[in-house]
Specification:
There is one protein chain. This protein has 628 residues and is α/β, with parallel strands linked by helices. It is built from 21 helices and twelve strands. The termini are far apart.
């Protein structure tokens, strides 16, 4: 075979290109080996530092990593040449590993682009849509961009037909219903991370807790709320919580519907009254003193305005699962600016809604996309002062509700606000910047770092250096394994990043088809009315019995007095008769009547029988009667 003709310009050019590519390949291989060596060294240094910390030895500040420039070539991967040329903490191989870790075959939500000194537009950070029901955490200090992250996730979920529920304490999320406003700064940022930003609005339904504020009223009956959640709201201890459970049991057994707080107060008042003491004793384990404490807490709670959150019509949580006519999911925002001073009630009410979803939804197992994603804002309020039973109920709900097709994302400031048993159930994490101004903050920061998989980042430092709208991300892959830790610049929401104008919210609420069902509160017969009627009947019976007793006493007194009067009258009559008889007897010898009864001698002669015979003869002679 003859030697190639090196004088041919085409052959010479091909040979030169081959030599250049071979040299670049060897250089890239050398750089890859060097990067792997540096990564191994960094891992060893980190392990050694942890060992020294565990042993209590002083830890020297690590030297900053030395970035080596990486020459880009036409044959190199796109991710390796898009903003990662040695400017950040990750090597080209590590960037490639991140790209591979966030490449999925199923539909995804786009979180943003990898940051490696600058944004790497070709290294997109995503989360599989099917993994959104494996729960997650969005954490970070105030002002680091948690709300915008939540808004961006909600918009993408709704666009893919997944309904979303989120609490909106300050009204900042309401902008999701209004198309966003473009600006050069915004477009520059979105282009840098590979986002084709366009303004868009999502179909939004506004709700108001108890009807306070704008939105369709969301209420719950006290019976449905239950003793466990109500004890959390009232701040009861475990003994009082158990006692309140007995009161609920008594009401249920006796058909006393607990609709609002006045019903529960009526039951407690009845049990501590003279009429209900016997029934209180039969309950067992419920003392009068404990019932009194619960009653006082209820009165204080109601006086603070919390009574409006309980009542009817009771809200059906299936309303949160609705879709728009075009198939997009509806974003349900619970506007709660009016209850910002009642954090325990707000967070516990959200837990009630989640528990209701768990109660009524059927089992669906693993699905291609969630039936609902529930964003639990200000999650730390839920766990502050929570009893063991309450925390256990939360853990169980979070663990099991996944099989109902519901994903839960807790939104809070630091992961330490969420109990470890709950954190263990969370598959995805978006951690915004943390601040360490105090020893407690530094301790919390180290605890947060310790919960992440190993990576090429010095997370304790990176978490304090994250800019607004940036986060450390790791999610659950389709295979159920965690993805590589990625410093991410997050996508910008397509809706307005300020609150929607009040006039637009009012118009949306007025046009809501739910307003006719839930807009007006109703007051049906419940425990308060039943017990009031019972106590009124008892009072009436007692009053009638008292009146009858009083009448009987009055009649007896009247009879006694009448007998005394009759006795006195009889005595007076007898006395008068005796006096009369005495006087009569005294005057019997000298009276005119006595004197007239004595006959004179002439009367005695004339009255004699002889005289009468003589006179009769004379008279017959005179009148001629004697001849007959």
């Amino acid at each position: 075979m003859s030697a190639p003709d090196t004088t041919d310009p085409a052959v010479a050019a091909a040979e030169a290109e081959l030599a250049r590519l071979r040299a670049e390949s060897e250089a890239a291989e050398a750089q890859l080996k060097a990067a792997q060596a540096r990564a191994a060294l960094a891992t060893a240094e980190a392990d050694a530092a942890r060992a020294r910390i565990d042993a209590g030895a002083p830890v020297a500040e690590p030297d900053p990593p030395v970035a080596e420039p990486v020459e880009a070539s036409p044959g190199a991967g796109r991710a390796a040449i898009s903003g990662s040329e040695g400017a950040g903490p990750l090597t080209a191989a590590q960037v490639q590993a991140v790209v591979a870790g966030y490449t999925f075959a199923t539909p995804t939500l786009d979180l943003g682009a990898l940051m490696n000194g600058t944004a790497v537009a070709d290294a997109q950070i995503r989360i599989p849509l099917a993994m959104m029901n494996r729960h997650g955490l969005v954490a970070g200090a105030t002002g680091t961009g948690k709300t915008r992250t939540l808004q961006g996730l909600a918009e993408q979920l709704a666009a893919k037909g997944v309904p979303v529920f989120a609490a909106d304490i300050k009204g900042d999320l309401s902008g999701v219903a209004t198309p966003g406003e473009s600006s050069e700064k915004l477009l520059e940022r979105t282009r840098a991370i590979g986002q084709d930003w366009k303004p868009a609005a999502s179909v939004t339904e506004y709700y108001a807790l108890g009807g306070i504020g704008k939105g369709v009223p969301v209420r719950a009956t006290v019976s449905a709320f239950g003793p466990l959640l109500l004890s959390k709201v009232l701040g009861l201890n475990e003994t009082q919580e158990s006692s309140l459970g007995l009161v609920f049991h008594y009401a249920d057994r006796h058909g006393l519907a607990l609709v609002d707080l006045s019903d529960l107060r009526a039951v407690l008042s009845y049990l501590t009254s003279d009429e209900g003491k016997a029934e209180l004793k039969d309950l067992g384990g419920l003392s009068t003193a404990t019932a009194g404490v619960i009653l006082r807490e209820l009165i204080t709670f109601a006086d603070g305005g919390a009574d409006v959150f309980f009542g009817e019509p009771e809200f059906d949580v299936r309303e949160f699962l609705r879709a728009a006519p075009d198939g997009a999911g509806i974003i349900s925002l619970l506007e709660v600016p009016g209850v910002a001073d009642k954090p325990a009630l707000f967070s516990t009410f959200l837990m009630y809604l989640l528990a209701e979803l768990f109660e009524i939804l059927p089992e669906v197992g693993d699905v291609d996309k969630p039936k609902l994603v529930f964003f639990f804002d200000e999650a730390h309020l839920l766990f502050t002062g929570a009893s063991k039973d309450f925390t256990a109920a939360i853990v169980q709900t979070v663990r099991l509700i996944r099989s109902k097709g519901v994903g839960v994302f807790f939104v809070t400031q630091t992961p330490k606000d969420v109990p470890s048993d709950v954190l263990a159930q969370l598959g995805s994490r978006v951690q915004h910047a943390l601040r360490a101004f105090t020893p407690d903050d530094a301790k919390a920061l180290r605890a947060t770092v310790g919960t992440y998989p190993r990576s090429g980042y010095d997370l304790e430092r990176v978490l304090q250096e994250l800019g607004t709208g940036e986060a450390i991300v790791t999610v659950m892959s389709e295979k159920g394994a965690p993805t590589p830790v990625a410093w991410t610049r997050l996508r910008a929401p397509q809706g307005l990043m300020t609150p929607t104008p009040d006039a637009a919210i009012d118009a949306a609420v007025t046009a809501s088809p739910l307003l006719a069902t839930y807009g007006t509160a109703i007051d049906r017969e419940s425990a308060r009315e039943i017990l009031t009627a019972r106590m009124n009947a008892a009072d009436a019976a007692a009053a009638a019995e008292e009146a009858a007793l009083a009448k009987a006493k009055a009649d007896a007194e009247f009879a006694k007095q009448q007998a005394a009067i009759d006795k006195a009258a009889a005595a007076a009559d007898r006395k008068a008769q005796a006096e009369y008889d005495r006087l009569l007897k005294k005057t019997s010898g000298t009276s005119r009547t006595t004197r007239s009864s004595q006959k004179s001698p002439l009367e005695q002669i004339l009255g004699s029988k002889s005289t009468q015979t003589i006179l009769n003869g004379v008279i017959r002679g005179m009148f001629g009667t004697g001849r007959r």
